[in-house]
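Revision sheet: structure tokens.
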Amino acid sequence: MLSFIFVAVISIVAVIATFAVGFSRQNQEEGDQYTKTTKKNIVNLTLLNALYVAILVVVLLIYLKYFR
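Predicted:
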């Protein structure tokens, strides 16, 4: 049960942080530099999401193996 709470809290924090960045004033004012680096930004976000999923899978496997 504790691991589900842990995963839920991390997920909620990630969603809140994503919306905070998306709706920030600096992000609302589209800059030329941002549009030039769109591909790099997408790759970075994809890597961060993949890392997040990998960590969640490892935590779940550890929980299933040792705490169940």
